[in-house]
Amino acid sequence: MLSERMLKALNEQINKELFSAYFYMGIAAYFKERSFDGFASWMEAQAEEELGHTMRFYDYVFDRGGKVELERIEKPKQEFESPLKAFEAVYLHEVGVTQSIFKLVDLAREENDHATYTFLQWFVQEQVEEEASTKAIVDKLKIIGDHPQGLFMLDRELGARGSQLRALMNPKA
């Protein structure tokens, strides 16, 4: 059984994960409007991944006998000065998510909640990967600058990570 503090914190994280999906969809729309379909596809796949994270927390709360409490989700930013600024926002967002996960880990330790502590270790590792991958894209965009050829090459590279949900919705016979 989850303590009240832990349940409240996990519900807050569920809502943060839902916002993350919304955040990525907003940036996907920004890129789609500018014909950067690869960047948009990467963001859409990221949004799906965030929904997966949401469901992990959602299921965990129910598995531990808790109640999920959904809150209003803030409107995400959809305008950026450049692809670099958009990905810098993504990187900073992931740093914030990491801090949120770390606070949950600290609370699990404080509460002697070994099950939640163990559950959260997957997210700790996931955030290491999230920060590294988004930082690598920011670094590439800094090198590329405003050079259209470089932007289109990176757009194509990131487009290789496609939306799984869209593939399921539009199966090719």
Mean pLDDT: 95
Annotation, overall tally of beta strands = 0
Report the span from N to C terminus.
Answer: 47 Å
The portion of residues forming beta strands comes to under 5%
Order of helices and strands: HHHHHH
SSE topology:
Blueprint: H1 4-33, H2 37-63, H3 83-110, H4 114-144, H5 148-159, H6 164-169
Helix pairs in contact: 1-2, 1-3, 2-5, 3-4
In brief, what are we looking at here?
The chain is mostly helical and 173 residues long. It is built from six helices and no strands. It has helices at 4-33, 37-63, 83-110, 114-144, 148-159, 164-169.
Describe, in plain words, how this protein is organized in 3D.
- The protein contains 6 helices and no strands.
- It starts with a helix and ends with a helix.
- 77% of the residues lie in helices and 0% in strands.
- With 173 residues, the protein is mostly helical.
- The longest helix has 31 residues, at 114-144.
- It has helices at residues 4-33, 37-63, 83-110, 114-144, 148-159, 164-169.
